[in-house]
Amino acid sequence: MRIRVLGCSGGIGAGARTTALLVDNDVLIDAGTGIGDLALEDIDSIRHVFLTHAHLDHVAGLPMLADRIFEENVDTPLTVYAREETLRAVQDHLFNGIIWPDFAKLPSPEKPMLRYRVCGPGDTISIGHRDFYAIDVMHSVPSLGYTVQNSDGVFAVSGDTKTNETLWPVLNACDDLRVLIIEVSFPDEMQELAGIAGHYTPRTLTDDLKRLDHDPEIWLTGMKPGEEARIFEQVVAAAPDKNIQMLSIGTVLTV
Ligand SMILES: [Zn+2]
User: Fold this and answer.
1) Is the whole model's pTM more than 0.85, yes or no?
2) How much distance in Å is there from the Cα of 123 to the middle of ligand 1?
């Protein structure tokens, strides 16, 4: 299994793209602005999108992706998986016929180019030889993390979250957790805002990392542009014994 980082930033700015991870060549986890850099043939092979939540930095590229799939008039439509609240938000506020066409009814309601599938906490969706398992996490809107497992191991993505009781037991139950991609949006100095916005800071993240029984590669994501170096420094200082790195566009992880 190959995970290619298309975007991992918490905002825009030169060189920054928001969250999108390409799993092998056909599945996206989140559809932020990072998908805009993909070659057309790479876009055309995407058939599944797992959303962590409805915030714009995680869905901004989805309307354009659906439009491309529609134009190509492919045999297999694009399927979007997310919890019910997220799907409702995407339908009501993006594909509502005003902001963008409702591709779940086009070219016809019987054979649309866009499909929605509810995937709630505890659900597993199998695609090819990969099992996508949804985990409840704690953000300012209903959100999910995911583990993705194949015969070689597991990688996990936290989605946007602050400290929570649900992610860590799931990670500890994984036999072969190889890679953990976890958000940490703000530096410690911005703890109050992070708490309100539902994000980790280096202090709250490293406190929670003590609950992790395994020793996977840990990759930090979702940092606010301009704060990356400070956040990384604070995380490493608070957890010097962990294998922690900073995600960047173009990083390819193999599990
Ligand atoms: Zn968010």
Assistant:
1) yes
2) 21
Distance 53 CA to ligand 1 centre (A): 7
Give the Å distance between the CA of 160 and the centre of ligand 1.
5
| Chain segment 134-144, per-residue pLDDT in tens | 999 999 999 99
User: pLDDT tens-digit profile of 81-130?
Assistant: 999 999 999 999 999 999 999 999 999 999 999 999 999 999 999 999 99
Q: According to DSSP H, which parts of the chain are helical?
A: 40-44, 56-59, 62-72, 84-93, 167-173, 191-197, 202-209, 228-238
CATH of the domain at 14: 3.60.15.10
Cα–ligand 1 centroid distance for 109 (angstroms): 31
Count up the domains in the chain and report the number: 1
Taking the centre of ligand 1 as the mean of its atom positions, its distance from the CA of residue 95, in whole angstroms, is: 19
Structural domain including 163 reads: 2-254
In tens, the pLDDT along 9-46 reads 999 998 999 999 999 999 999 999 999 999 999 999 99
